[in-house]
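dude i think i finally got it to work??
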Amino acid sequence: MYNGQLAYDKGVEEIKASRTDNFAKILPVEMMQPDEVEEIVNTQKNPNFQRAEEKAIKAAQDHSIFIAGAENNPQIDDAYMLLGKARYQDLRYVPAQEAFNYIIMRYPDSDIFYEATIWAEKTNLRLKYDNTAIRNLKKLLKNPELEGKVKAEALATLAQGYINTQAYDSAKQALEQAYELTNEKLKKARYTFILGQLNSKLGEKQTAIQNFEEVIDYNYSIP
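look at this
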């Protein structure tokens, strides 16, 4: 798991370093590998994610302690989480969804249950099931146990769903809430830029200018 997580983290950092956004369009809320053809692909685009997947599978297969209908190794749900995320970042959404759904079905009391649920909806968005993801995320966000960065991720994912369906006012509201709950500088800057784009779409030009000026104020501390 340790080596798999290292490989995954390295792959994510390489995406951040190499990604070139198309600023003529509303940026995707999540920074991930470009999917040029916008369809499910089955080839690995970053060997780090393939390595992370292999390590996660090995952890699940070799260290599962399933006795009397219950898993007795508390790290197996983490192995499936890493497996799903590695496949997702590798743009292999159907097998990624299988891993997230496994956690949701088998580990309802897991401390990563809500995180797995959000990643399942992120995958639904990539599979073009926008309305399904929006409906499920709205239901999830009514849960009072959802808070902090997990709630921020749910709101950001919901905002992407609204952007996909061109419900820009709803996307703006969700992304503003995600911004308030986010502490990561790169995410806050990205959200602010997208808010500028959304405000521009909504005809709120002065607010859009303020958003873009906020991004400029980050100076060179962001890409």
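Residues 72 and 188 are 39 Å apart (CA to CA).
im so relieved honestly
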